[in-house]
# Entry
Amino acid sequence: RDRKAAKLKLSLLIHPLIRRKRHKDYKVTREKTDFMRFKSDIRKYIDTGVPLAWSVMLGRVEEAGLAQPRGGHMRLIIGYNEKTDEVIYSDSWGPRHEFKKMDMGDAWSITMLLHLIAPRLQR
# Structure
């Protein structure tokens, strides 16, 4: 039994869920199919305990407490609030950035990529 356990390896499944083809059309119509899929993917994976890697384009939406830099950045989606229609995320910029919230429409408007990063066992 210990021999079998020693042969198991943990790896990561990295799978793109959403990839925006163009970065020009960031206006959000909440009925758009892609926006609904974005929200659905967040709910689906967060509800199963799997955070999502979120690639964003900074500077498109004003964010409180941020010097409004521009360019690409990576964040981690760790939750959502269905009542307030917000995404909850963690940022890599140190203290005071580990638990942040953003309107779901604004979140979609800055999204470039959304990746599933999930552990899996390999034999």
